[in-house]
Amino acid sequence: MEGRLCAVALLCVALSGVGALEVTIPQPFFEFARGDNISLPCSFKPKNPISSAPTVIVTWSIEGTGADDKEKQILSYYYPRKILDIKEKYEGRATLDHDIPNGKANLKLSSITLDDNKNFECKVQIPRDDEGNLLATTRLVVLVAPSTPICGIQGKTDYGQNINLTCKSDEGSPPPTYAWTSSFVRNTPYSTNPRNTDKNGILSLYNITKDTSGIYNCTAKNKIRSAQCSITLKVMPPSMMNAASTAAIVAGVIAAFIILVVVIYCCCCRKKKEEEEGYVMGVTDDYKEEDRNGDGRRPDGRESTKSYEDSTAKSPDDLRDRYEERSEADYKNGRDYDDRRRDYDDRRRDYDDRRRDYDDRRSDYDDRHRDYDERRSDYDDRHSDYDDRRSDYNDRRSDYTDGRRDYTDGRRDYSDRNERYDDDDRRYDDDRRYRDRRDDDER
To answer: Residue 75: helix, strand or coil by DSSP?
Structure first.
C-alpha cells in the first residue's frame, strides 16, 4: 500500500511539471579568453504556443556579488513588439541572438574583460505562464594568461645565510601556479637542503654555500599558457669575503696616510712663508745699509776683516781719528737700527690690525650666512605647510568627487527602478487589455 502511495505521489509531481515554463542554460559555467567575442546560450519552453501569448519578455542580468548587492540588468527584449532595451554600460558590446517562437535567447558579448568574470542570469516572463523554472544562471570565467613574472632575491647572498627567491606575476586568471627549477654552475650533483621550501612562488634557501650558486628559473602557469623569469645567484665563499674586507681596510689606511702628509706639507709651507715675509721686512734692510756705509763696518758694530787689515797700516793719529769716526758711525748705525726696529713693529701692528679687521668681517659674513640659513629653513617650513594644505584640499576634493559619483550612481539606480516600474505598468496594461478582449470575445 505504501508503494502505491509513493508511485501516485511521484506521478503527481511529474504531471505538475508538465506544461510549465522551463528556462535552461546547458552548462553551469563557460570559459573564454580575455578579448574574445562570446555567446551565452539560453533556451526556454513555454506551456502554451508563443503565438497565443500576448507578450514575452526576455531579460539578461548579472547577479550581485555580495549579499546586499542588487542584480544589474544588461538588456531586455519585448516580443512581439520587437523592442530591445540595452543598458548604457553595455551599449555597443551586448546584443541578443533570439528566435522567440523556437525558444532561443542567446546573449552575445564582445571584447570581454576581467570585469565580466561574474554570474549571468537569463529570465523569461510570459503572462499566465508563471510556473516552473522562470530563470537559469551560469558562470562566465574569463581566462587571462599570466604576465611575465618578476624574480627577486630577499636577503644577503653571503656564505651560511638564509635567503628567499621571489617570483610573482601581476595578472593571470585563473591565478597561476609557480614552479622553480635550477641549473648549477658545476656539473657535480647538488645535495638539496631538506629545509628548502617552494610555496606560492617563494623559494626559501637555508644555509647557502658556494654550491648553491647557479641560475634559477621560475615558471608561472595557468590553463592558457606559461611565462618564465630567471635569476642568477652568486654565493661568495668566506676566503673571498676576508680578502675583500682586508683590501678595503688597506686602501682606507693608505688614503688616510696620503691625506695626512698633504695636510702637514701645506701647514709647513704656510709657516715658512710667514717667517720669510717677517725676515725680509727687517733683516734685509740691514745688509743694504752696510753697503751704503762703505767703511767695512757692519750694522751690529763689528768690523769686517778688510777694515782691520787696513787699520794696521795707519799711524796712531789716523787710528784715533778712525776710531772716533767709527764710534760716531756706530752711534748713528745704532739709532738707524732702532728706527728700523720701530718701523718693523709699526708694520707688524698694522698687519695685526688688518688681520683683526679681516676676522671681524669674516665673523660678520658667517653671521649673515647663518641668518640666511635660518630664513631658508623658515621658507622651507612654510612651503611644507603649503604642500600639506594643498594635499588636504586635494583629499577633500577627491572626497567630494566620490560623493558626487555616488550621487550619480544613486540617480542612475533610481532611473533604472522607474524604468522597471514603467515596464511593469505596461505589462499590467497589456494584461488588462488582453483580459478585456477575452471577456468581450466570451460575451
So the answer is: strand
